[in-house]
Design a protein that fits this description.
alpha/beta; 2 domains; Maf protein; seven-stranded mixed beta sheet; 7 strands
Length: 274
């Protein structure tokens, strides 16, 4: 169907993506981050798209080079027709209108933790899905998920103990809810995994819809392209619809097989089960 690539070096996102039960590769984006907005959700979406597009552009260039040097054109063409979906993601913490990224040093971490101590703040993760096919790349999905997080009042000693650990310095807002900071979180409203770094639930269903769309377009190309394309058939759907169509046609007095066989096949292609 499609190949999945995570454009992130975050070990947390890697573990979260494994929860989907889908195989994926990792390709780290080294793009320059350009922010044009001060609104948290928009910032995360901008950065997520930049990361995914940077990896996509590298793949397009790589494919173009491989096509030029390929000895076997058919193999090259097959590879270039492969659907690749690249996932880009970025997370920020917003407190009292300020966007908190990763702390630069211990003083910055202390400032951030003091700011969120005893208050409620928001965590935004932006996700971009970029489709690469041949020499073309396009962003097909872009969204941001928000989770509200409540932190209890922390003492000065608790804050100092925390910033003296290794945990704050590679995380937005200077904390990791899945780590030792978790004991200071008194409540959340929204997706817990979103705070860790990836809104798994929303991403899962978004990927399902993208896959259906890709397969549906492939099926339509097959139907209108003279049978030159390979199509995927969900045989469970095929069998169900086959027998429904068969006995409907028999009840109507039609004894032929080809029509309801064709209908079942079409349904299996279009109503694909992901």
């Amino acid at each position: 169907m499609y190949k999945l690539i995570l454009a992130s070096q975050s070990p947390r996102r890697r573990e979260l993506l494994k929860m989907l039960g889908i195989e994926f590769d990792i390709k780290v984006s080294n793009c320059e981050e350009i922010i044009t907005s001060s609104e948290p959700a928009q910032v995360t979406m901008e950065l997520a798209k930049q990361k995914a597009m940077a990896v996509a552009n590298e793949l397009v260039k790589q494919k173009a080079f491989e096509t030029e040097i390929a000895d076997v054109r058919a193999a090259s063409d097959a590879k270039n027709k492969e659907n690749i979906i690249i996932i880009g993601a970025d997370t920020v913490v917003a407190a009292d209108g300020e966007i908190l990224g990763k702390p630069k040093d211990k003083d910055d971490a202390r400032r951030m933790i003091n700011k969120i101590s005893g208050t409620s703040h928001q965590v935004y993760t932006g996700v971009a899905l970029v489709l690469v096919k041949g020499d073309k790349a396009a962003c097909i999905e872009l969204f941001a998920e928000k989770t509200d997080v409540e932190v209890c009042e922390m003492s000065s000693q608790e804050i100092e103990d925390y910033i003296n650990s290794d945990e704050p310095y590679d995380k937005a807002g200077g904390y990791g809810i899945q780590g030792i900071f978790g004991k200071f979180v008194s409540g959340i409203r929204g997706d817990y995994n979103n705070v860790v770094g990836l809104p798994v639930h929303r991403l899962y269903y978004t990927l399902k819809e993208c896959a259906k769309s890709i397969l549906h377009k492939a099926a339509m190309r097959f139907l209108h392209g003279g049978g030159r394309h390979i199509m995927y058939v969900d045989w469970e759907y095929y069998k169900i619809f086959y027998y429904v169509a068969k006995y409907t046609f028999l009840a109507l007095g039609y004894r032929g097989i080809s029509i309801y066989n064709l209908l079942a096949m079409l349904y299996a292609v279009v109503a694909i089960k992901i």
